[in-house]
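Continuing the batch. This is chain 6 of the set; chains 1 through 5 are on the previous pages. Same settings as before, nothing changed between runs. Recording input and output for traceability.
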Amino acid sequence: MSFPRRQVLGFAASLLIGLAAATSQVQAQSKELVIFAAASLKNALDEAAASWVKESGKPAPKISYAASSALAKQLEQGAPADMFLSADLDWMDYAAGKNLIKPDTRVSLLANRIALIAPSDSTATATLAPGVDLAATLGAGRLAMANVDSVPAGKYGKAALEKLGGWDKVKDKVAQADNVRAALLLVSRGEAPLGIVYATDAAADPKVKVIATFPEDSHPPIIYPVAVTKDSTNPDAAAFLTFLRGNGAKGSFEKQGFTVLNKPASSS
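Output for chain 6:
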């Protein structure tokens, strides 16, 4: 039995269109989730993401880690991302002010502490009390910190030292890094005798130790907000955010030393 050539061509064209539509749908469903996250989240978020992949069967998210300031600026310049996790409220506020996030998805997810660290074999000691003089402890060395003007960990550290009256004594001995993990690395490698990082960063590197923790009232509360970006069309973004707020990710965050808040922005 034969069919007219026109009918055969029409059937073939319809088949190709159908296949193309199906392929497009599959590609849309498996589109890689892109996340911008503060560098200090790496260990905890990598573990949480792996748990989500195992539980959901979804493709592994692509996570770009950097200073919150750099990530917010990249979003502003049009860098494609589905979610933004900041290490402070200021840079999430900045993103919100530039209309870069979906406000109704914003959550204050985590809390953290900042600490003074030294290489694990160091004998240095310090008391973080009013009048602290880290310059004397440093000697000829330098204090590793994330950028004190833009990176959250650096801003918190500077604020704490100012509150304790120790900033002017040490400001000329600070080695500023692009992000908090870079500051951690300077101490871990022995290139700086002291550093100020998040307590969670110190817990992630066995080559450093905490010699003192800053009083909580010496700096603004350290809160990590998260939100889906305004231009995200990936349905997995909402699903992953729900996972991060649930028990599936809680253990990963707490194991690294974070305190889970999970508060909508309006109640922060």
